[in-house]
Amino acid sequence: MADSCGSSCSSAKTSNCGTTREAQDAALAQQENAITRSLGKIKNKILVMSGKGGVGKSTVSVSLALGLAQRGYMVGLMDVDIHGPDVVRMLNMKGSLEPSATAGGLVPPLYYNDNLKVVSLEYMLKDRDQAIIWRGPLKIQAIRQFVADMDWGELDYLIIDAPPGTGDEPLSVAQTIPNVKAIVVTTPQKVALADVRKSINFCKTVNVEITGVIENMSGFVCPHCNQTVDIFKTGGGEEVAREFDLPFLGRIPMDPRIVVAGDDGTPYLSSSEESPATKAFAGVLQAIENRLPPVKTPVSLNIAGGCGCGCGGSN
């Protein structure tokens, strides 16, 4: 069989043993060009990271994307948490990937509203409860396709929600998206701070600039008196930021309404509600906007969520 294979593959252009090396190189070069074209239309690329799970990183990612869109900026939200994609559920988006493509051969993302586009592996699955059992190469290729094959268009901000840790997904983002900036989310406890130091050192190793640190779940907002109680401690994130000479973007207290709204698909932190949590998040949002200014003056926006089918219409 080896001899048969060798003779049939003697010509680089006519192979019966799969794609030739020349064809693979050409496809890779074509994808690299597509990635470069796509990223050339995006001003700010922000990777939202955490050292460990359960610190509210996806909540921060979704709220940041929606908050910037509500301010009138063109925003993309890319979910690269391959094994646990949650952003479409947190936004209550019901659409699915359509086979049609744009004039440029690109695939349209889901539209939450006129200013917010969303890409997640979950809406590409027929069964959203299906387990994704992939090794590194498949995850890397999926992330590259999220950039190369999707019709992101002109964006002021691309928010990238990564899984916790320093594995394939954040590394692939760092290698695929030049000049991506990182925002590190942590909680105040020592065990979370130990892991967030690893995320910070990861960014240093792969030369990703850190825009700042967010301390999430910093205290608890009592649902009865609306006062903040420090049951989970506070100040740990700020201490780590000071230790590594990084900007501290702010602390966000826990609020039961954040959990309820996340389950209902109506993000709370970026809402118009008045509470210590929403006020704190508004300060974080302003700090990020100041450090990573947008392309242009915000455009007008209908802030109601869209139907999710790509038309930009109402539910």
From TrEMBL:
GO terms for cellular component: cytosol. One of its GO terms (molecular function) is metal ion binding. CDD domains: Mrp_NBP35. It comes from the Bacteria. InterPro entries: Mrp-like_CS (IPR000808), Mrp/NBP35_ATP-bd (IPR019591), P-loop_NTPase (IPR027417), YlxH/NBP35 (IPR033756). Gene3D superfamilies: P-loop containing nucleotide triphosphate hydrolases (3.40.50.300). Pfam families: ParA (PF10609). ATP binds at residues 51-58. One of its GO terms (biological process) is iron-sulfur cluster assembly. Keywords: ATP-binding, Hydrolase, Iron, Iron-sulfur, Metal-binding, Nucleotide-binding. Homodimer. Binds and transfers iron-sulfur (Fe-S) clusters to target apoproteins. Can hydrolyze ATP. Belongs to the Mrp/NBP35 ATP-binding proteins family. This is Iron-sulfur cluster carrier protein. The lineage of its organism: Bacteria, Pseudomonadati, Thermodesulfobacteriota, Desulfobulbia, Desulfobulbales.
